[in-house]
Amino acid sequence: QVQLVESGGGLVQPGGSLSLSCAASGFTFSMYAMSWYRQAPGQERELVAGISRHGDSTNYAASVKGRFTIFRDNAKNTVYLQMNSLKPEDTAVYYCYVVTLRRWGQGTQVTVSS
Fold first, then answer.
1. What's the pLDDT score for residue 51?
2. What's the pLDDT band for 112 if we cut at 50, 70, 90?
3. Whole-angstrom Cα distance, residue 85 to residue 106?
4. What mean pLDDT, rounded, does the chain reach?
5. Beta carbons within 8 Å of 77's beta carbon, 6+ residues apart
6. Would 108 disulfide with which of 9, 10, 19, 35, CB 3.0-4.6 Å?
7. What is the CB neighbour count within 10 angstroms for residue 34?
8. DSSP-assigned letter for residue 88
9. How far is CA 19 from CA 9, 82, 85, 101, 102, in A?
């Protein structure tokens, strides 16, 4: 069974950093592009970042470009999202997503507040 388990969410101060992890199982991880999405209450889920199968290509939402970094370790079946210079508007539930399989993780809450 496809499983995606996010971790690393929590409360962080504005300007701070947080690192999210998504541990994948139940499929051949290295064969699939991965993405991070986020959703705030009352808002649509939006793409935050994406990464190709081998990690050679990435893309970011304009709102996070330069602050967030997506990377993956195929040997560990894990995709990461390093978030720096966090802003209150980054507050959301963050989800990892297997692009082609169309499978979502359970999400992890990120709250940026002083």
1. 98
2. very high
3. 25
4. 97
5. 23, 24, 25, 29
6. 9
7. 25
8. G
9. 8, 4, 12, 24, 23
pLDDT tens for 49-66 read 999 999 999 999 999 999
Q: Which residue has the tokens 């195929």?
A: 74
Give one word for 103, left, alpha or beta, with left for phi > 0 and alpha for psi -120 to 50. beta
Torsion, Cα 46 49 20 109, to 10 degrees, reads -10
CB neighbours of residue 15 within 10 Å:
11
Per the CB < 8 A criterion, the answer to whether 60 and 68 are in contact is: yes
Q: What is the mean pLDDT of residues 31-51?
A: 97
At 81 the pLDDT is 98
- Give the whole-angstrom CA distance, residue 85 versus residue 97: 23
